[in-house]
Amino acid sequence: MKTFPTRYGGLIALTGGLIGPPGSIESDRQAHTVGELTGMPALLASGDPDPHVPWSRVEESAALLREMGAEVATRRFPGRSHMVTPEEINLARALIQRAQV
Q1: Nearest to 70 by CA among 33, 98, 15
Q2: Which of 69, 75, 81, 84 has the fewest CB atoms within 10 Å, counting from its CB?
Q3: Domain for residue 3, yes or no?
Q4: How confident is the model over 31-42, as pLDDT tens digits?
Q5: Is residue 71 within 8 Å of residue 41, measured between CB atoms?
Q6: 73 with 86: CB under 8 angstroms?
Q7: How many separate domains does the chain show?
């Protein structure tokens, strides 16, 4: 199944990245890059190491989103467990507020 991304007001992924097995982003790059995200703000934040989403997946996802034109900010929290922090909530809130202007 292919997805067809379009530009939204923003994307927030707290401990998130594109879904799939290791290497799937690169092996199916053409399917992932259909659509344009020109100027869409995106926040990808995660602990490192995270038992569910490795930091390498966050970086791969950010690179792909940038390739599609999104304005991506990443935030790595070394040593943080699989959780969302107040700092991440504040970063997400700021992205939402900027998108509403």
Answers
A1: 33
A2: 81
A3: no
A4: 666 678 899 999
A5: yes
A6: no
A7: 1
